[in-house]
Amino acid sequence: MIEVELRGWGPDDVGVVIGAFESPDMADQAARPIDTPRAALEWMGTWGFRDDAHAFAVVSGGQVVGNVAVSNIDAHDTGWVSYWTVPHARGRGVAVAAVTKLARWAFAERGLFRLELGHRMNNPASCAVATRAGFPAEGVERAKLKYGDVRHDVERHARLATD
User: Fold this and answer.
1) GO molecular function, one example (predicted)?
2) pTM (two decimals)
3) CATH assignment of the domain containing 94
4) Is the Cα torsion angle 126, 127, 129, 133 positive or negative in sign?
5) What share of the chain is helix, strand, coil (3-state, %, to 5)?
């Protein structure tokens, strides 16, 4: 498996964040466009001030190549995992390594018991990441996500601390 480092986001990462959200498949993944340094700093900042979430910049080969996060941590010790990589880092196992490392951190450091994630049914690459990172599929949630005027079915995956 490829080696990755997880670290906090910082001001020097603005260009990576803007570049990532310029990718057509990422453009609608944020609540509002991430297309200016201010918007990128605000996106990074929202992760730093929440008790129910933590995001990490994913570093491989000395470069920031993605994001991995756990959010919506609830009273049942469950969190929601999300991840993305920049286009040139895809297909190399970066996301799998990052999600695997995040899961170990979330179970050991945050004391979580269950991690969940979901992907649109038309995103087989994200499904492969989830499965390879030890998150078996649990079922389909119909019309769960809405991007623009389109609703998408989502396949939910989960991993337990005891897996």
Assistant:
1) acyltransferase activity
2) 0.93
3) 3.40.630.30
4) positive
5) 30, 35, 35
47-103 pLDDT, tens digit each: 877 789 999 999 999 999 999 999 999 999 999 999 999 999 999 999 999 999 999
Q: Helix, strand or coil for residue 2?
A: coil
Number of domains present in the structure of the chain = 1
Instruction: Report which of 107, 149, 104, 99 is spatially closest to residue 125, judged by C-alpha positions.
Output: 99
In sequence order, what are the residues at sequence separation of 6 or more whose Cβ sits closer than 8 angstroms to the Cβ of residue 134?
100, 103, 159, 163
**Per residue, what are the HEC states of 24-92?**
CCCCCCCCCCCCCHHHHHHHHHHHHCCCCCEEEEEEECCEEEEEEEEECCCCCCEEEEEEEECHHHCCC
Residue 46's pLDDT is what?
A: 85
Residue 50: domain span: 5-160
Whether the Cβ atoms of residue 26 and residue 84 lie closer than 8 Å to each other: yes
Q: In this structure, how many other beta carbons lie within 10 angstroms of the beta carbon of residue 30?
A: 14
pLDDT tens sequence across 1-28: 799 999 999 999 999 999 999 988 887 7
